Amino acid sequence: MNETTAAQKEQIAALCQRHRVRRLTWLDKPIREGSEAAFLIEFDPADMPPLSGLAAMEDEISRVLDCKTDLHPYLRELYLGYGPGESGIAYDRADYRDVPMPKDKIAEFCRRKKIRWLAKLPYPNRASVTNYADVGFLAEFEPDAKLSWGIFTMGHELGEILGCLADVDTMGRIEPAKLAKILESVEVQYERTH
Q1: From CA 154, how far away is CA 47, in angstroms rounded?
Q2: Domain-by-domain residue ranges, the chain?
Q3: Rounded-to-integer distance, Cα 85 and Cα 63, Å
Q4: Which fold has domain 103-191?
Q5: Per the confidence metrics, is the pTM higher than 0.85?
Q6: What is the pLDDT of residues 158-178, one digit of tens each?
Q7: Residues in CB range of 101: below 8 A, 6 or more apart
Q8: What local confidence, expressed as pLDDT, does residue 23 receive?
Q9: Where does residue 94 rank: exposed (0-12), middle (13-18), buried (19+ CB within 10 A)?
Q10: What's the CATH code, domain 6-96?
């Protein structure tokens, strides 16, 4: 399904804003029999509606898309369903899209961590290490970098610089076909020049 008209996108965005949705992501395929579309829906903990509210939202989105639609709540670190679909984000609250990127602090972080190249992903990688970030990054490390368990703390450190939850993943963890597609839409934040 994953294709929507401009009018449908506007209706979905209005619905998400009205219900305080943080992020709505297409899933690769529906889970429930008879459904034609499915989304991973994420709220801040204080905004999570009761199940009856989720059912009502599911009905609203089904009417907008004119097909039976599944909504699957994303609870940080507890989601076990299908991964996000190739079409990616259907709605993302604007305040998580425009995180300022202080280039000087990011460059210092990259030099300290022996990161050769760092790029901001168009949306957080849900299959990555921390799986709950507001901003996701893809990194390529210097050959002599010793990652070990340090990869688990890098997102936290970068998040402190940015003032939000961040995640750092490596290119080696992503299938080559998916990586090529991802690299088309990243925003390079640091690249070693010498």
Answers
A1: 28
A2: 6-96, 103-191
A3: 21
A4: Beta Polymerase; domain 2 (3.30.460)
A5: no
A6: 989 998 878 888 888 778 888
A7: 120, 162, 187, 189
A8: 82
A9: exposed
A10: 3.30.460.10
